[in-house]
Amino acid sequence: MEVLAADIGYGFTKVVSASRVRVYPSVVIPKLHTHITVDIDTGESPDIVSYGNTEYLYGSKAMRFGKKSQFPPRHRCFTQSNTYAVLLLSALSLVRNRNVYFVTGLPVSVYENEGIKTSYQEWVLNILRPHGAINIKVLPQAMGAYYDAVLDIQGKPIDKNLLMKKCAVVDIGYYTTDIVVLDHLDLIYRETIPLGVSIACEFLVQELSSQKEISMHEAEMLLRGEKLFICGKPVDVSNTIEAAKDRAWNLISTAVTDRIGRGEDFHFVIPVGGGAVLYRDKLAQLFKEAHFSHNPSLSNAYGYFKYGIRQIRKGSKDA
Ligand SMILES: Nc1ncnc2c1ncn2[C@@H]1O[C@H](COP(=O)(O)OP(=O)(O)OP(=O)(O)O)[C@@H](O)[C@H]1O
Ligand SMILES: [Mg+2]
């Protein structure tokens, strides 16, 4: 059996298998009936999946097809949308096996609603089972990052003492910031705050509108350090970018410190999500005991993967 882990966020889909890791924008559009393209092979993957009776493009390719193509709207029903179904199916591009243990996560606030969790699980299984997923496990989203921090690649605890310590995970995503607190392995506090990096993107779109109309995706690329080009020429907008980052940081950090202070109550705080890459220095200053993984934006997906490996190992021992 092969483990496939997917962290499907509002901004980005992060997928991990034993041999590959993929990150792409959570953008999905129906494929045009007649896809006209230049007949030169660039080696780019086709990024197309069928769902229902329709073929869809996803990821960066979908993004390119229209300036207005957007990240999914912030909506409670995201996890039951066609976009989400296509992103689930897109994860299967990482595995050849038809014997897949699929691990994913739900926001903590949704996870604890037993009814929603069960119907979500059934829905996911219905979509993936015909393609080979035979087992599905859903974890609370930020718990992935916890497993990533405490388990090694074989799913074994790195340090048993570490497991008993009180710690917090702060997952700064595109639309949301999730906080979970664990003590002696129990999840003792959780909250999903509706604030994320998209605030900085919205600010940039607005502030730059007199110079160039940019999409949320283009704003997001500027935050990551890409240059703004107007008529093919680079334009320095670094001050506006810093102001956008600061605006989002002020809101997010205030909301986080209101809940967990500066981490004084914990042995360590694990900052994750793309926001932890963007605000690494500020987070390191805010929390004295900040533990960063080698790739915070992938921590949840890596953790789901390690969890899956652990379950398979346990299963084979029990057998
Ligand atoms: N490597 C990176 N460097 C800089 N910024 C990044 C990086 N990766 C992601 N980000 C920023 O962090 C934001 C959030 O990314 P992340 O993948 O955590 O969001 P998400 O999981 O899709 O969102 P949500 O958790 O709200 O559903 C991105 O929109 C991007 O602006
Ligand atoms: Mg996320």
Automatic annotation (TrEMBL):
Residues 5-127 form the Actin-like protein N-terminal domain. Residues 169-284 form the Actin homologue MreB-like C-terminal domain. It comes from Desulfofervidus auxilii. This is ParM/StbA family protein. It comes from the Bacteria. InterPro entries: ALP_N, ATPase_NBD, MreB-like_C. CDD domains: ASKHA_NBD_ParM_pCBH-like.
